[in-house]
Each structure stands twice: as C-alpha cells, then as structure tokens.
Amino acid sequence: MTTAAISSREQALAGALAFVMHVLFLILLVFGVSWQHQRIDTAVVVDLWRDLPTAPPAAEPPPPPAIKPEPPPPAPKVETKPPPPVKPAPEPAPAAKPDIALKEKLEKERKLKEQQAAEAKKLAAEKSREAELEKKKRAEAEALKKKQAADAAAKSAADEQQKARDALAAQQAAAAKREIDKYMDGIRTRVKRFVLVPPSLQGNPEAEFVVTLLPGGEVLDVRLAKTSGNAAYDAAIEAAIRKAQPFSVPAGDQFQQYFRRFTMAFRPVQ
After folding, report:
1. In what order do the strands lie in the sheet with 261-266?
2. Contact call for residues 258 and 187 (beta carbons, < 8 A)
3. What's the pLDDT tens digit per position in 154-167?
4. pLDDT tens, 186-206?
5. Pairing assessment for the beta strands 207-213 and 261-266 based on DSSP bridges
6. Architecture of the domain spanning 185-266
7. Model-level pTM greater than 0.70?
8. What are the strands, taking DSSP E only, across 131-218?
9. What φ, ψ does residue 187 adopt, rounded to 5°?
C-alpha cells in the first residue's frame, strides 16, 4: 500500500469519527435541556399543591382538579445528515513474490555487468587505437630517420663522387694544358728560329698574330692582331710563321679546340 492511500484512509476515518462525536454531543445536549425542563415543572406543581387552602371540615368541597403540568415543548428536531460514505481504502498491492524480486535484482545486476563490460571493451579499444597510432608514429619517425640518413649518405657519396670527378677533370685539364702549352711552346720556338730581327728594332716590343692551321699543321692563314710598332719586325714574324710550317699539333678535339685557330705573341727577347 502506498503512503498516499494510507493517508487518505486515515483522513476518512478521522472525519467519520469527528462527525459521530458531534452527533453524540448534540444528542446529549438536547437530552439534558429536556430533562432539566421536566424537573423544574414538577417542582412548581408541588409548590402549588402545597399552598392551596384547606377546605372547612363541614363541607369539604370537592378537590379542585389537579392541574396537569404542561407537557414540555418538543425538543427541536436536529437534522442529522448521514455521514458521507467512507470510501474503502484501496487494498494494498500484493507484495511481489520473492522469486520475481530476485529475478529483477539479477536482471539489474546483469545489465550493469554488461554495461561495465561494454565500457571496458570500449576503453580497451581506444587504448589499442592509441597504441597503434603511437606505434605508427614511431615507425614513421624511424623510417624518416633512416631516409634522412640514407639521403645524407647518398649526398655524401654524390659529393665525394663529384669531388673525385672534379679532381679528375682538374687533373685532365691540367694535363691537357700542359700538353697544349708544350705544343704552343714548340710552335713559338720553331717560329723564333726563323725570325730575322731588323737592326733598327729598339726595346722589346710585342706583336700578336692570329694563326689558322690545317689538321696536318700547315698554315692556312696568318693575320696581325696587334702590331709591335715596328713594321719590319711584324713582317719578319709573319714570314717566319709561314716558313716554319708544318707545325707539330695534337689530333682530334684538342686540335679543333686549341690549334684550329689560335693567337700567339712574340717578343724579340723572351
């Protein structure tokens, strides 16, 4: 039974009891008033009988009629209303059977365990994902580190190879220059052997000529590029160049690059 049902039943009982007490009190009050009225009337009648004169002995008159006491006024009717019908209190719900309560308890515990298991599974899955992400990050960082190391090693190897190539090229260039200088010195020495320096030449003037050769070292063309200031000396050098041919020259690319056309400078004293 619920608390509201118990309270309603108690209020109904209290109201009914109060109504019954009021009715009993009213009846006692009416009864008491009526009883006092009857007592007072009886006493008056007695006093009246006592005060009446006695008749002479000779002729006794008939006794006067007895005065009947007035009947007491009727008691006022009190309309009594029947007490309101007391509603029967609702019967308490039958108590759950022990097995039903136990089943409900077990069902709640089962649902709670399932919820806790689901939350634990979710937490474990989140931790697993975080671990996988961390593992992936470490693998990526390690791969990046290895790649950077490999790139650095490759760059270092490329730098070393480039240095080696540069050194080799420098060596080859130096060797080629030595070779070219050797041929140039040979041509200059050969030309000087045929130069007839004029007696009027003074000082050590320089004259430059552009020489064009054929692959066999023969002179194709000679052109004065810079005069020495002495026409006789310039003419003597040009004549010596043409007279000293053919020159010893390298073959292939070196000839095309350095001896096909070149500039030579001449001084009387070198």
Report:
1. 219-226, 207-213, 261-266
2. no
3. 999 999 999 999 99
4. 999 999 999 999 888 888 999
5. antiparallel
6. 2-Layer Sandwich (3.30)
7. no
8. 207-213
9. -65, -45
